[in-house]
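Researcher: Can you fold this with zinc ion in place?
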Amino acid sequence: MSFNIKRRAILKAGAATLATGSAGLLLLPVDNKEKLNDVNLINSERIPAVTPALILEHEVAVKDNLQKVKSFNQTFSKDIFLEKNKYVAFHTALNKISKVKKVIGFANFNLISFDDMLNYARRYPQIGSFTKSELVLIDEIFFYDANKYGFHGDKVIKDITSKINKKETVKVAGSGHYLFKGDALTKFNQLEKDVGPNLVLTSGVRSVVKQLQLFLSKLERSKGNLSLTSRSLAPPGHSYHGVGDFDVGKKGYGKLNFTSEFSNTSEYKKLIELKYVDIRYTKDNDVGVRYEPWHIKVV
Ligand SMILES: [Zn+2]
């Protein structure tokens, strides 16, 4: 058996194994041992001997991840759930976040910061200040190690209170969404030209709060299953929508734009042929996210 497994895949598999509670050993090719400190997963003295059995175990873990990504909306036996004693705070926090969205409107909500959200809640009696237990819940969701429930992407925003400077964004007419000036806007404008008038922006800049709201809403629909939720949506802080990526769709295609059906449209076929287009979450991604043919990589 060879070591012909990508280091990244091995790390992911190791993390997945840790998360699911089976043998928590990390497998690395010998020449990569010194790089371990980069990832802070395990201390190099504890690297186990590389045996065929371990290699097999981790190949299985990698395959297992791909299977989960394929059937992203199914529950798997080792999925991690939100603890039951957090449910009350979870529901009331989500309710307040949704009320803030109603008060400030869909488009503005895309950019709202954490502190702004707290201020709106405090100022509007129909919302009411967030309680301590709601804030603890939000904090835990944001700072929890997402690897533990199966999401292996980068954390691109580490500060829960980070703000989006509205002046660095442009509102895209008719979409209710914003794009960052610079690379994102340039790419979208070019796409409109090359793909044609039926290409629309379906999601652009998302603040930490916007991603939190999307994540918690999906978490509610999936009955507290953190693993299942993170197969469809990056957890707050982990979304590249916070730093430049955006989603596109076909005009009039509605919710189908966020399904694999989008990859059957002529718009998708045109865009994928363009040399400057990269899809963030491909069919065989090792991040643990479903295939997203609509999500354009900018960063
Ligand atoms: Zn996206």
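Model: Folded with zinc ion in place. The chain has two domains: 7-70, 84-296.
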